[in-house]
UniProtKB/TrEMBL annotation:
UniProt KW keywords: Hydrolase, Metal-binding
Transmembrane spans: none
Location of the Amidohydrolase-related domain: 5-236
Phylogenetic classification of the source organism: Bacteria, Bacillati, Chloroflexota, Anaerolineae, Anaerolineales
Protein name as it appears in the record: Amidohydrolase-related domain-containing protein
Amino acid sequence: MLLRLPGLIDPHVHLREPGATHKEDWQSGTSAALAGGVTLVLAMPNTQPPITDTDTLNLVLQAARRKALCDYAQYLGATPENVHLAPGLASRVAGLKMYLDHTYGPLRLADMMTWMGHLAHWPAEVPLAVHAEGRTLAAVILLASFYSRPVHLCHVSRREEIVIIRAAKERGLKVTCEVTPHHLFLSEEDIPAIGQGRAEVRPVLASPVDRQALWDNLEVIDCFATDHAPHTLAEKDGPTPPPGFPGLETALPLLLTAVSEGRLTLDDIVQRYYVNPQRIFRLPSQPETWVEVDAEAAWEIQGANLLTRAGWTPFEGWRVRGRIVRVVVRGTEAFRDGKVLVSPGFGRNVREELA
Ligand SMILES: [Zn+2]
């Protein structure tokens, strides 16, 4: 049975260009997006150099314009130095990203005065996404409430976090959140099977109790986001494995498998992987854009067959149900039967389109 879904929107991907194109670049990363039924990606700013000012934004957008195969927008990274400069770039970016806890790259903000500066100055109508875990998450929800501004909480992974988010929403605070497929489908019990180095990811894979809490609070989860964070196998299997999983090509099949098992509905997917990201991140609709899925097709995930340059997956060998057959973007057939059919540069910057 062929199903037609809207073009999916992934609000959290790392495309590694500029600076680490051996892991991924705008072309390979957006190929992986199309192969996963994703037609619009929001790219994170922790590249080398990080995207924090006009020059670095121009640099990344040049690469994107040349190479992107699906539509996109680029995040700006918050630093202690760009509190006053950042709002001038707000109309050109997906949103502002604040790294408040340790992760891959140099953008962590240690000082709560800097958090408050950005929360106060970044325009309230432009998305502000934060990496904040545990107590940090509680702290940033409190600080954002001082300015009554919306804040989007990235990759929620633990019971205490989703419970705090539920409580914040019940009190009318303007918080939204996303959860990754790997935190929905994996836990620390899977680490031995994945391998210690390969299983490195931030936030870390949590306990089965944490994972179950995400499922039990599904109505509190606004978005599914892959946090696609590719590193090569040599890096993951080396002495200092960097954190991150590729995820763009496995997300929809995993979610469709959960539908076939009765754990999710198709509407749960459409709401969290299209409707809510479009609303929260104020994205334009992509006309004549859809994904055709064979919901019955059973297949086995194999890293070697993926289009991401990472070439591996933490879901190696998983049997899934649901294959992406065809992706149409703005009236053009962009992907069919495993092959990308559009040329580099086909993807549009949805923020420049609006400007
Ligand atoms: Zn990330």
